[in-house]
């Protein structure tokens, strides 16, 4: 029999599962990780014993609630952790679990695949000791280790202050926070941010806490270069006034998040350009329905909205799914969720204004800057292909291999798009969309096949 | 209105090489490509540049192509990662080895210089081949190239020689007014010319049918995958007698493998499908044990035209003077494509191709009713 399937056991996927179960549906919940929680509420290995407050700070209550939910649901779910969905075709998902490949047919699927950091490379970013913000956070949350002894956090987006704060609280030596957004942008964004006063308060709290603890927070500060012989030893940053050098042994950086959309793509969902996310995103309605009747999208995988929104979107899409297969759902609950999502959406617009995208990054990037570390493609290689007359991103990929390696462009795709757009003098929305190809993560030879 | 000597439909390696040779011969050419040049079969194929294994009727043309490939940098300005690594066709049974011996005997005189290797010779020369192979046939001067680079470069070279290359420009209507063709495109171009070259790959059947010579062509979708870069091991491109999987390793270290069939997403896009991918991942380790534990990082497929006898249609239309066909290459047109472009050029410039094309005439389907 075909199942109702949820991909991803983060806040969105877990709430979707809970909602389905509450109505008597027993979904299959697939997750690449060993324990449910997703990225933000990622759980430590079973033998680690740090408290929830220590791990999740302000979010401890939410994290605990979510973990408890999935633990309690276990018997009512077909929960399959450690399971990678590497391919999707109409009506079926292809999975890999402990070296075994299997196929799972679905009647409906809720895709809750989350997000990863948006990376805009700087010289030296491939040195050992340079991490994305998300990776730095996972090292701390999951393994309880810091990425270095003297750490600098750089880039923009709410994760910047959050991770810096988590590191400082865990006892790491945070040397500086370099926020590329100018203070003026953040002041302008305030009206939008006020739609979520508590979240805004947290953001202000993180920053104030850092300053109060003597950690320098610089705004309008651009990370220029990371230096070191075998690993990170120092970095250079500048603001409007001057250039500075900092000695450090690790740096974590990113410019916000980007949605993981490959499965939606393989499932055939229509995409549209989303200016707010500066990315192509799968289309969906307010409830999470996509252009494909059997496919629903929730959480950051469908546009960056954060964990609270993900929980609501998971529940909302599950209600839509239930309705679509003939269940009666409480309409006022659906409306209420949509209204709350709307409010968060306004806050999100404010955030985007507060943490503005560094538009000049592409023009400033030097030719020898590495963009695609899997295939070792540099800015100059991409520019060269564009100068030969190519501007469509998949064509540029075909010619210089950018985005062709093992991460399939998940790390370099956003940066490559900026370079192509800048060099071809087109809008970044006018250079096409990097198409997803299976496997979305590497697949080993000699795998076994489930009969 | 654009007046030219020849309009070419399709910017794959066949159409683009025709555009290149025609413009080098001084003809005014307009090439019309629905997507981007070399974005379909010609740009996504396995990259095998081999003569070995082709039907004997293709060998004169294939041999000619072999010479063109030898001149690649002079012709298109890049080497396209072309290397004459040798093509090793493996036999998994003595029967298969006999078939390879028979082929070697019958293709003598075409210049392939095939060497049939028994088990010991194969082990000694190609120790990375798995135990399942009991022998092989080696064509030392066959090889492989990067189709993503080579095929678009033919179109670029044609442009440098004066050809008009129109991309994202689908042909929407063709008619013949008794004197010349009138071709219109989606982008609003209106072209006139005495010659029309149907090089539209898997999509060429429509135009043939319009001129009253429908062909029983179907689309196929070979499945491909590539590994992460591995230490250099394979010093030949390989295939297997009787079909199965084929593999080569590029200078960067990635191994490219193909085998089995994928499926069509729509009229122009295809995917390899999980069955084919998993079959490759399973079978490959028998033939190439060094792949055990390696990772596949990407898969793809393409849309290729196949006629029932797996031979292409090349040459004059039998119903419309001035119309030339060149399509249906059955998964083997990358190597031979440039020679086809040259042969079409000879038909236009000197009345006939130097290489016989009779075996590829479209008239061979005239008595067959098309399903
Ligand atoms: C996955 C795969 C692996 C292969 N491996 C090999 C190999 O190893 N070795 C080998 O020799 N061969 C191989 N082949 C076969 C080879 O790629 C093809 O035979 C060859 O590229 C055919 O070239 P073409 O120019 O006829 O077709 P194509 O490259 O398909 O070009 C036809 C073009 O016509 C265009 N077109 C169609 N309709 C219109 C229209 N109305 N208006 C404008 N343009 C139009 C299309 O957009 C297309 O670009 C393989 C094929 C595939 C799909």
Automatic annotation (TrEMBL), chain A:
Domain SoxA A3: residue ranges: 374-446
Keyword tRNA processing annotated: no
Protein name: NAD(P)-binding protein
SUPFAM superfamilies: FAD/NAD(P)-binding domain
Domain FAD/NAD(P)-binding: 3-314
Domain of life: Bacteria
GO molecular function, one term: oxidoreductase activity
UniProtKB/TrEMBL annotation, chain B:
Residues of the signal peptide: none
Gene Ontology annotations for the cellular component aspect, listed alphabetically: cytoplasm
Domain of life the protein comes from: Bacteria
UniProt GO MF annotations: oxidoreductase activity
Gene3D superfamilies, alphabetized: D-Amino Acid Oxidase, subunit A, domain 2 (3.30.9.10), FAD/NAD(P)-binding domain (3.50.50.60)
Entry keywords, A to Z: Oxidoreductase
A matching Pfam family: DAO
UniProt cross-references to InterPro entries, sorted A to Z: FAD-dep_OxRdtase, FAD/NAD-bd_sf
Residue ranges constituting the FAD dependent oxidoreductase domain according to the UniProt record: 5-346
Name assigned to this protein: FAD-binding oxidoreductase
């Amino acid at each position: 029999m075909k199942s109702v399937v949820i991909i991803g056991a983060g806040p969105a996927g877990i709430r979707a599962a809970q909602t389905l179960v509450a109505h008597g549906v027993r979904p299959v919940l697939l997750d690449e990780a060993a324990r449910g929680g997703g990225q933000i509420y990622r759980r430590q290995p079973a033998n680690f014993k740090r408290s929830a407050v220590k791990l999740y700070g302000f979010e401890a209550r939410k994290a605990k609630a979510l973990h408890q939910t999935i633990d309690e649901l276990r018997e009512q779910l077909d929960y399959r952790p450690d399971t990678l969905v590497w391919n999707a075709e109409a009506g079926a998902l292809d999975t890999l679990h402990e070296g075994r490949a299997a196929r799972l047919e679905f009647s409906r699927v809720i895709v809750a695949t989350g997000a990863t950091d948006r990376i805009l490379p700087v010289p030296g970013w491939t040195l050992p000791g340079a991490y994305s913000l998300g990776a730095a956070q996972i090292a701390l949350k999951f393994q309880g280790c810091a990425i270095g002894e003297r750490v600098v956090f750089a880039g923009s987006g709410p994760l910047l202050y959050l991770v810096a704060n988590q590191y400082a609280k865990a006892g790491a030596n945070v040397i500086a926070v370099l926020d590329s957004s100018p203070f003026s942008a953040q002041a302008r964004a305030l009206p939008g941010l006020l739609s979520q006063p508590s979240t805004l308060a947290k953001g202000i709290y993180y920053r104030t806490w850092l300053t109060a603890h003597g950690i320098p927070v610089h705004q309008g500060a651009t990370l220029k270069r990371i230096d070191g012989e075998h690993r990170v030893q120092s970095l250079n940053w500048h603001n409007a006034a001057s250039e500075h050098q900092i000695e450090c042994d690790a740096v974590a950086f990113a410019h916000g998040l980007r949605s993981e959309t490959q499965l939606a793509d393989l499932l055939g969902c229509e995409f549209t350009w989303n200016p707010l996310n500066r990315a192509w995103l799968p289309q969906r309605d307010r409830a999470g329905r996509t252009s494909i009747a059997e496919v629903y999208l929730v959480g950051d995988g469908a546009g960056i909205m954060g964990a609270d929104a993900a929980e609501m979107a998971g529940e909302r899409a599950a209600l839509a799914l239930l309705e679509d297969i003939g269940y009666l759902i409480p309409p006022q609950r659906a409306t209420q969720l949509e209204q709350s999502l709307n409010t968060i959406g306004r806050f999100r617009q404010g955030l985007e204004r507060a943490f503005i995208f560094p538009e000049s990054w592409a023009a400033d990037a030097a030719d020898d800057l590495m963009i695609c570390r899997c295939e070792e493609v540099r800015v100059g290689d991409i520019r060269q292909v564009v100068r030969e007359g190519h501007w469509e991103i998949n064509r540029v990929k075909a010619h210089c291999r950018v985005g062709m390696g093992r991460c399939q462009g998940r790390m370099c795709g956003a940066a490559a798009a900026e370079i192509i757009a800048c060099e071809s003098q087109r809008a970044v929305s006018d250079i096409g969309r990097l198409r997803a190809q299976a496997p979305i993560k590497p697949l080993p030879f000699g795998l076994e096949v489930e009969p | 209105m654009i007046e030219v000597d020849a309009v070419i439909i399709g910017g794959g390696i066949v159409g683009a090489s025709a555009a290149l040779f025609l413009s080098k011969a001084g003809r005014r050419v307009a090439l019309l490509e629905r997507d981007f040049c070399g974005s379909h079969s010609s740009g996504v194929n396995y990259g095998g540049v081999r003569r070995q294994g082709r039907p004997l009727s293709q060998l004169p043309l294939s041999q000619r192509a072999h010479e063109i490939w030898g001149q690649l940098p002079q012709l298109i300005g890049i080497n396209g990662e072309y290397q004459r690594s040798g093509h090793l066709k493996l036999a998994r049974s003595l029967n298969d080895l006999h078939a390879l011996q028979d082929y070697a005997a019958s293709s003598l005189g075409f210049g392939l210089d095939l060497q049939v290797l028994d088990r010991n010779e194969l082990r000694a020369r190609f120790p990375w081949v798995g135990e399942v192979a009991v022998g092989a046939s080696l064509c030392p001067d066959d090889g492989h190239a990067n189709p993503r680079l080579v095929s678009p470069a033919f179109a670029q070279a044609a442009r440098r020689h004066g050809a008009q290359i129109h991309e994202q420009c689908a042909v929407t209507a063709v008619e013949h007014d008794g004197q010349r063709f009138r071709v219109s495109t989606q982008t609003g171009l209106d072209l006139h010319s005495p010659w029309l070259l149907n090089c539209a790959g898997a999509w060429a059947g429509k135009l043939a049918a319009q001129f009253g010579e429908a062909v029983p062509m179907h689309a196929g979708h070979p499945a491909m995958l590539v590994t992460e870069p591995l230490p250099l091991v394979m010093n030949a491109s390989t295939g297997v007698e009787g079909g199965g999987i084929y593999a080569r390793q590029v200078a960067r270290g990635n191994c490219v493998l193909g085998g089995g069939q994928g499926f069509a997403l729509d009229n122009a896009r295809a995917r390899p499908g999980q069955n084919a991918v998993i079959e490759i991942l399973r079978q490959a380790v028998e033939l190439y044990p060094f792949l055990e534990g390696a990772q596949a990082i990407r898969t793809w497929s393409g849309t290729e035209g196949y006629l029932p006898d797996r031979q292409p249609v090349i040459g004059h239309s039998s119903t419309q003077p001035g119309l030339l066909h060149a399509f249906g290459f059955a998964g083997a047109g990358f190597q031979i494509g440039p020679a086809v472009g040259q042969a079409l050029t000879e038909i236009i410039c000197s009345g006939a191709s130097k290489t016989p094309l009779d075996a590829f005439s479209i008239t061979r389907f005239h008595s067959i009713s098309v399903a």
